[in-house]
Specification:
The protein is globular. The protein is α/β, with parallel strands linked by helices. The chain has 14 helices and 23 strands. The longest helix is centred in the middle third of the chain and has 16 residues. It folds into 3 domains: about 90 residues, NAD(P)-binding Rossmann-like Domain (Rossmann fold, 3-Layer(aba) Sandwich); about 220 residues, Mur-like, catalytic domain (UDP-N-acetylmuramoyl-L-alanine:D-glutamate ligase, 3-Layer(aba) Sandwich), CATH 3.40.1190.10; about 140 residues, Mur ligase, C-terminal domain (Protein-Tyrosine Phosphatase, Chain A, Alpha-Beta Complex), CATH 3.90.190.
């Protein structure tokens, strides 16, 4: 069939385009302001695309039009689809019907850690010889891509709780038919589409309720909401976590990590499953949160029969995901790291992990409040605690300040003053140019600069590396 994707340059839509092309379909698309790497990726895949939305892009008439979740009424191409009565659908629905119905789906959900856990899981299955298909919300470095289609009956997918399309405001993950479901944790996020904690929790309640009794639910046991969701699961539950005891006084998690050792080369820990030591494992990732991600991936891979030897090899050789504690370069003895963290919890654990990986180095946090969640005043105290784990903090301005007033929007100047009063020197600078100049001027050899944003942040990483002395 001929699939036409409106909004093809989004990460998920571009990956879907690649999957459809790999499945033998004709694929075309359109978007606005397309630039590398997505423009290059589409060209490399041989997928024709147009920069700009127009009714002309629908000629010749496609069999299916996939409407991205960033596309809304008033878009001239979408309006032409509706006027002409063309068949239209969403990316999540297309994934379900084209790729997931005929396979055993391992779907990874949760507020934090989805992309990393999905990538680890796909690599564990690969090292165990199970050759999975997968779709990840980032580039999995071991594969060099965010998607793959194979002949295996296993499909690993990142199960996002964000909405599906303008005509389907439910979460994408409700479409994914999980045979094995992972819920890493549940903590309120995406305040732009969820009105409160109750609505956010309900999204995961329904996701858990999709797992068949013959399937498996893997749950991070350190999150109270996730434990409560597990109690209502129709499917058997594999709990993952630390320590000997359940936080609520119940039995210990089924999958536990004990005797953790962190350092510059990563983390070592012993895996205990149902009270029995499975063995000691090594992974190049740092931070307790990545140990939790690894445990969840181990439990999910085990549920579909992956060998222990293959899983151990997979952890040892895992190469992370782009924009997850990714070292972008070093100049003048200063290491520059790029990370996607934007929720207070993610910011805090990322800074903790940086200390594990670079012991003794001064940790400098550069944070852009860019996501809807990050720009809300209700999270300001959370950022005060999280960013206080750094030695020095630089704050950018709000990405879309016009959306907020003094009662609803985070106040970077106030946050900087509070951090300074707490003992962590902090400052707010409104432009990328000013941030680069200030960070470079105050940096010295041995510093680790952690740049956190869920967007491009004005190319700050390259600009900072270029401005730092070469030696």
């Amino acid at each position: 069939m001929h699939y036409h994707l409106i909004g093809i340059a989004g990460t998920a839509m571009g990956s879907l385009a690649g999957l459809l092309k790999a499945a033998g379909h004709r694929v075309t698309g359109s978007d606005h302001g397309v630039y590398p790497p997505m423009s290059t990726l589409l060209d490399d895949m041989g997928i024709p695309w147009v920069d700009g939305f127009s009714a002309d892009n629908l000629t010749p008439r496609p069999d299916r039009v996939v409407v991205g979740n960033a596309i809304s009424r008033g878009n001239p191409e979408l309006e032409a689809v509706l006027d002409r009565g063309l068949y239209y659908t969403s990316a999540a629905y297309t994934l379900k019907n084209e790729f997931l119905r005929s396979r055993r789906v391992l779907a990874v959900a949760g507020t934090h850690g989805k992309t990393t856990t999905t990538s680890i899981l796909a690599w564990l299955l690969e090292c165990a010889g199970l050759d999975p298909s997968f779709l990840v919300g980032g580039v999995a470095e071991n594969f060099g891509t965010s998607f793959r289609l194979t002949d295996s009956d296993l499909f690993v997918i990142e199960a996002d709780e964000y909405d599906t399309a303008y005509f389907d405001k439910g979460p994408k993950m409700w479409h994914y038919l999980p045979r094995v479901a992972v819920v890493t944790n549940v903590e309120f996020d995406h305040a732009d589409i969820y009105r409160d904690d109750v609505a956010y929790r309900f999204a995961f309640e329904r996701f858990v309720n999709l797992v068949p009794r013959s399937g498996r639910l893997v749950v991070g046991w350190d999150t109270p909401v996730a434990r409560e969701l597990a109690a209502a699961s129709p499917a058997p539950v594999s709990s993952v976590g630390f320590g000997d005891d359940d936080p609520d006084g119940g039995p210990a998690p089924a999958w536990r990590a004990v005797d953790l050792e962190g350092g510059p080369d990563g983390t070592r820990f012993t895996v205990v499953h149902d009270g029995r030591e499975r063995g000691r494992v090594t992974m190049p990732l740092s931070g307790a949160f990545n140990v939790r991600n690894a445990l969840a991936a181990l439990a999910a891979a085990d549920a579909v029969g992956a060998s222990w030897e293959g899983m151990v090899e997979g952890l040892a050789t895992f190469r992370t995901v782009r924009r997850r504690m990714e070292v972008r370069g070093e100049a003048g003895g200063v290491t520059v790291i790029d990370d996607f963290a934007h929720h207070p919890t993610a910011v805090g654990v990322t800074l903790d992990a940086v200390r594990d990986r670079f012991p003794g180095g001064r940790v400098v946090a550069v944070f852009e409040p860019r996501s809807y969640t990050a720009q809300l005043r209700r999270f300001q105290e959370g950022y005060r605690d999280a960013l206080g784990r750094a030695d020095r903090v630089w704050l950018a301005g709000l990405f879309r300040p016009e959306r907020y007033d003094e009662t609803t929007g985070l106040n970077p100047e106030e946050l900087a003053a509070d951090l300074t009063a707490d003992g962590t020197p902090a400052a707010h600078l409104a432009t990328v140019e000013a941030l680069v100049e200030a960070v470079v001027a105050s940096s010295s050899a041995g510093d680790v600069v952690v740049i956190m944003s869920n967007g491009g942040f004005g190319g700050i990483h390259e600009r900072m590396l270029a401005a730092l002395p070469s030696s």
